[in-house]
Amino acid sequence: MKIMDLSFYxxxxxxxxxxxxFKGSWMxxxxxxxxxxxxxxxxxxxxxxxxxxxxxxxxxxxxxVGDIRDLEHLKKVFAxxxxxxxxxxxxxxxxxxxxQNPVYTYETNVMGTVHIxxxxxxxxxxxxxxxxxxxxxxxxxxxxxxYRENEELNGYDPYSNSKSCSELVTSSYxxxxxxxxxxxxxxxxxxxxxxxxxxATDRIIPDCIRAVEKGEEIVVRNPFSxxxxxxxxxxxxxxxxxxxxxxxxxxxxxxxxVGPDETDCWTTGNLVDxxxxxxxxxxxxxxxxxxKYDGGPHEANFLKLDCSKIKRTFGWKPVWxxxxxxEKIVEWSDCYLKRGDIVExxxxxxxxxxx
Length: 355
Fold this sequence. Notes:
This protein is α/β, with parallel strands linked by helices. The protein is built from twelve helices and twelve strands. It has a single domain (10-354), classed as 3-Layer(aba) Sandwich (Rossmann fold). The mean pLDDT is 94.
């Protein structure tokens, strides 16, 4: 199987939830460039500024404003669009936000999954469904090796735990309703994604860009936490690869970790060092950072994924390492801050990645 062969998606009816977010924007742009008939279902863009709006992604697709908690609206959209492939990314995606708004987090991440699976169940046009969760679904034992797909699910904080619940909901629906159907069901557990155009709060790369924009030091809350960092196009391309594979042969359905090679599991402090180095290299401007632990809520210190299953099954491997990823982040962000053509920059990066 050619991993980056996107010709399969030409004229396919694809429904993406959470399409106005950071990862959803890159996903939709890739599918639009591949010639797919893309429908998105999500709330208004979650950040201001917003990658989705800045790059005018809605112009190339059917963009529907809707709440994943609104089952009746979602049912109407499915009935009208009749999607063949559904990729579920709508979520409350932030650990700190989940401590502040746990009920909303569970409503969105758990009942949202129930609603999307109910719509898939009621619409046999769907041949391939991918539920995107997170590396944080696993019971974190702070050990040094990567978690495998058969490890215990039990996220600690409300965000991570709600995503563990989303996995369990998917498993129950699969066993209860899809064993003898033509619909293939997969969950993907992705590591931390970084890339140009992320404006979320409480994420390290957006914090770096905001500091640069203001001419301030970068504030790092926890420089010693280790995470599997990857460019946003890595999991996006992997989701599309899996969605296509199980569309063509249901045997490929299952649970998959999607993360970088072990060498790209970095501490936050080392990642920020790399950002500062690359920013000075490309722009000539020096940037520094400061360690300011703010005593915030519990977050895992050590987290790695074992991605041998997706590599073994598909011959998949990451395209860009962290150094290349940071080069692309700085390239996009510098273009944005200088008011350059960010649409052209985004398309060029996608084309380079796919080559």
